[in-house]
Amino acid sequence: MVQDDSDYGIGLGTAVKEALGDSLTGEDRTITGNKDFSAIITKINTATPDAVFYSGYYAEAAPFIQQLRASGYDGAFVGPDGIKDPEFIKQAGDSSAGAYFTCPCIPGELIPDFADAYTETAGIEPGTYSIEGYDATTVLLAGIDAGNHDRAALLDWVVNYDAPGLSKHYRWNEKGELQEPDVYGYKAEGGKIVSVGKIGE
Question: Which of 14, 38, 137, 168 falls 20 to 30 Å from 130 in CA-CA distance?
Fold first, then answer.
């Protein structure tokens, strides 16, 4: 596993490390803005892992996977939602082919009516969290419609919210995390990011 120095990369990297346990064969760190991953890649090729998970964003992940593939590494490459972006494929080019992504974001094709309406209205296809963004807005607007017109009241509404949205059921725990999160897998294929289904099914 390789993680960057952002709060996102560190937090996610810590969670992945805990989840992998003894299956983790090695870890390394990089910094935001880095474009030379030669030292890290040397360690990876020495360890010969089955897969490399990059915990960070696409700006660094793109040159990283380019250099990783150029070095001869042919194992799996996996990244989070911070990499699941068309810019990753654009910047990484052919090296992005076969890369996997994880994301708690529902594939747009599962809700085609939303995708069609979004594209017609916005003039572009839905992004990674467009459906979840619509759901979040719906939660807040429902709270306002219910008479919650100040910050404290609206916060209480969200904390106690328990209802389905378009993408998933919305109910949060005391840490502000969804109690029933769904995570989906995606893959870079044919120059696009395609869904490979819900993880765990």
Answer: 14
